[in-house]
Amino acid sequence: MAPRRNKSKNPPIFSHEFVIQNHADIVSCVAMVFVIGLMFQVTSPVATLFVTMQHNVTLNESHIDYDPEIGYYSYGRKDIFAVFFYTLIGIVVHAVLQEYVLDKFNRRMHLSKVKHSKFNESGQLLAFYFASAAWGVDIIVREGYLMGISRLWDNYPHCNFPFVVKFYFIIQIAYWIHTFPELYFQKIKKDEMSSRIQYAVLYLVFITSAYMLNFNRVALCMLVLHYTVEFVYHVARLMYFAEKVDLANTGFMAFNVLFVLVRLGTITLAVLTFWYGLEQSNKSMFDFAAGNFNTQIIRINCLTAICFLQAWLMWTFITFHLRKLRERSAVATSKKTRSPSKKRTKVQEEDISSLPEADQNGASENGNVKQRKGKKV
Predict the structure, then answer these.
(1) pLDDT per residue over 233-268, tens digit each?
(2) Where are the alpha helices (DSSP H) in 61-112?
(3) How far apart are CA 287 and CA 272, in angstroms?
């Protein structure tokens, strides 16, 4: 987020600066319109479309997923209203976290403009990844996915899912949509926009596709794995900005190991689900009405897309570390080409420091004696 500006200067109403300074208040007022609309009978049907989850499903006792204590939902066109409303909520929460948490740390650390923007990005993503990963783990435990991995593909299509699963995916889609207006509200520079737009689009494409193709179970597990390792990365990144070098190095080392393991785990889940599990109930044609998209073409395309994404992530990971190694070798080479006098002085100091303590004292005393003799002469 851009640094806080002096609010004593009042920009013209409806100007860009006015909208940027007051975007949280404007968006919160729009969101409150829908909440207040729930209180009146005339506006309640319209407001309900935005605030509550739609497309609820009534299951009978013969259905496999039947549970009288759980409300089940499917997806549909009315989900667009819920995504819009929770996108507004995401903008408000983003502004609150920025103003009351991140800005306070920024004022203490006195970061440069480049580090300031990256610190804010990591702070926002850290909170989101932690909440999403913890929430996803809770859903996985409740739904019993840990009891057997076959639950990821058994009884497909998973077009009827509990409220908490539907709400989770609506929040995921809404959050990554809200990152686009934030580029304007936070005055993100053009050189930083491309990377942020890139990963936001990737998240949106994969999450929305899994939601609409009823692959929500395997997508949930993959998101939890990915969010966990990203959480570790942004913790280490924040430690680096806070000049906690030891903690940052430990965090980056843990991230390097977990990143590779998560890539392998994601590919393993994808192969088990799309190549082995769903193959057992393969259909020749997909059925829109039943929500069954378990055809060979769709499964192969999904598996290929996931594997290509993991390969691309590993490629960027490897090239990043190779570039860092070249930079370190260049720095080491430049240090070796320093002036001879400085190099000899450093060697002498290293030789003395490598001796035992008694020899160090003797070496220093001999040096002092030579200096005194030189003065006498």
Answers:
(1) 999 999 999 989 999 999 999 999 999 999 999 999
(2) 79-97, 103-109
(3) 23
